[in-house]
Batch of 2 targets.
Target 1
Amino acid sequence: MSLFDAIYTRQSVDRIDSISVESQAEFCKKEVIGQEVKLYTDKGYSGKNTDRPAFKELMRDIQAGKVRRVIVYRLDRISRSVLDFAGVIDVFQKHNVDFVSTMEKFDTGTPIGKAMLMIVMIFAQLERETIQQRVIDAYASRSKRGFYMGGPVPFGFCLRETTIDGVRTKMYEPVEEETDIVRQIFSLYAEPQTSFGDVMRYLEEHGIFKRNGKLFNRSRIRDVVVNPVYVRADYQLYDFFKAQGTVIVNAPEDFIGTNGAYLYSGNEKKRKSVSLVGHTLVLAPHEGFIDSDTWIKCRLKCLNNQSVAKPVKAKATWLAGKIKCAYCGYALTAKIYHCKTKADNRYYLCSNKYNTGGCHFSSLDADVIDGIVFEEMQKKLTEFKTLSKQKRDDGNLQRIERKAKIEAIDKEISALLDKIPSANDTVMAYINRRVAELDAQKKELYTQIARQDKEYGDNIEEINGYMEHWEDLSVSDKITVVDCLVENIHASKEEIEIKWKI
Ligand SMILES: [Zn+2]
């Protein structure tokens, strides 16, 4: 295969003064050696990153060893970022691709070009180190309170050892495959019309899972979009948290748009609640990767959801339709008594009370009853998890067997496909029929596995997720959760009897 010269041209829309891709190509053609030349054109793409279709194609061709030289009109056509540029040049060098820029008379095929290249690489390294230093400086300048405090590592990160101010501690380090997913979650949820459910379905449809191989449920998605470990904390973010009443440890000038941040609060429940009052924000030693615009958009969406749900919460009860009078079986209804001196009181009353010969049920404090029922629900869930463990273990065995069957099928299919080159018509017909058969078997096995996953625990895990964010749920969401667990409740002053569905 003969190598060719590649001409790469790029023109962004935002620059009126920029030279057209056609003229760029004209200039570059003068540098072409030999006959073979291929043109790569990105029109309407800026140089702020290398995420451009033609550029990606060029890099693929280089990696496939098809390219001898890359010719551009000017250095900044490749990238405006020195770091990106250095990375690209690195790939060029690995594949013995010379690089020519017509404007700067830059040709890595010549000694002076090689020297210039080294200078570029040194600057890139310097910039890399400066960024790292800036991240660490901003972090360490004020307080040591941002040291890693333990706890589960958020999705998208792993832990690594580090030393800050002479103290050994740990910090987060991005895990590339996972950061891509986090970016996707943020960009999906930042759309005004997208709900957590939409994001959940998108991830499910695209086969994107959590670390443990399970699906993201709503509450895990929420955990992601409200966590400032992902954000590049800049002044806008500082303002946002300040306005929310959060205590901010670092000075505003430390918010330089690089570091992620930790959000702390005294207790776990508070950390997960919507309000940010009484929280403490401190810059973290790692680099964030979500821009503050997107992050704040998502956070505000969560706050707004809450304020919409509030008025409903005040007048209804999430036990609506479930809670009944223990004496007469009529429904209990929640009534609110407004009180000038203290918080409003909610009571349950029997709806049969004022009928002729009505019920003698006296009122019950609704907050107390709701609290007891909620605790019972939590207990029941724990119980259910232990009880269903045996069931799940059996299920796991079946799952492994089914996976093994799928593997065997895959092997047989690939063996059949190997025979195709030497197959006559009769053999071909057999191969087609057999592969279709095996495919159908495979599909059935996958369906069985999926059904099984649903049966054992997925549902329960999702309910658990909701329970963890109970305070943030709307009444209608709470009613849905209760409906998954509870058949009905009979209540009186003496006892509360819950009939479970699970
Ligand atoms: Zn009654």
Target 2
Amino acid sequence: MPTDHTLGMEVVAMRVLVTGGAGFIGSRLVARLIAMGHLVTVLDDFSSVRRPLPPDARIIEGDVRDEAAVRLSLHRQEAVFQLAAVVGVPNAMRRQWDSLTTNVLGTMRLLEALPSGVPLILGSSSAIYGKTPQVPVREGDDVLLGNTHIASWTYSYAKLTEELLARASAAERGSEVKIVRLFNVVGPGQTGRYGMVLPRLVGQALAGEPLTVYGDGSQTRTFVDVRDAVAGILTVWDKGAPGDAYNVGGVGEVRILDLARRVIALTGSRSPIHLVPMAAVFGPAFEETPRRAPSIEKVRALGYQPLISLDETIQDIAAWLAQAPSPEP
Ligand SMILES: NC(=O)c1ccc[n+]([C@@H]2O[C@H](COP(=O)([O-])OP(=O)(O)OC[C@H]3O[C@@H](n4cnc5c(N)ncnc54)[C@H](O)[C@@H]3O)[C@@H](O)[C@H]2O)c1
């Protein structure tokens, strides 16, 4: 039986489905699962950026909302990771229908067809906490979402509903679901196209363009490297309690203005920082979350430990962008 020494877990080779497996996080998870000896199937509609997948991965090009594609993908699987989504708040604001239905209908399709005893690990988000003033936020804390006429909450409501479906399926149908609430995952391979802050700032710094910071830059986030996030997802799969939710994130709350300064220092850029009003970027139907930082004590108790510093991640993103064929892959 092979052992994954980095996670300290014994690995029994399994058939595993990763929806959204061609995505930023999904493609890293797929590579890691294959390296662990698992047989991996990817269900992805390739609506996002195309990323290289290991040749050993079995690819099903299809929509997670499509019942037939889901049934085909689930055939003989022993574990399922649901990561298919329309991500990024600006992206989800432009594609509200797809954002809602991919998360909600996609997860519903998977839960409906999930064979008994097959665990489903749901990729949820810190977005479900909304604008809660609670810092750091714990899994049991109240959530605080804005009004539905504000389009920037669409993604949060979609992820929240996905969680509710998973919990209802666990309670009433005995589904074995484990929920991973990811907090601001960053790293090489992430596109800045969908509004993710770090690849955009690093790209601007490398191009010698002004770094655009939205609002006054006092809003905070806590970033986690994608390699640590994947380790967190695998830890929850292995050791998480069925029906339970876990925050998976990094440590150290960062103001976005300080993040921009850090990017400039680490890339040796001479770019200035420009503050841009939120409304100029997102329009009036946008509400910002002032602070976001996870309590990761619960997942730490399972053995998770984020290892990669934000500075290391910034340098890795810079190295990746510098060698990428186009400035915005
Ligand atoms: N990146 C983050 O910081 C972050 C934070 C919190 C939660 N998450 C969650 O993690 C998951 C993965 O995010 P990511 O950053 O890798 O995003 P991503 O856009 O890189 O990956 C999502 C993948 O889903 C695919 N997809 C979209 N709609 C689909 C559909 N209808 N059917 C099949 N495939 C579809 C896309 O083609 C893409 O490959 C998502 O559920 C997201 O909500 C991400």
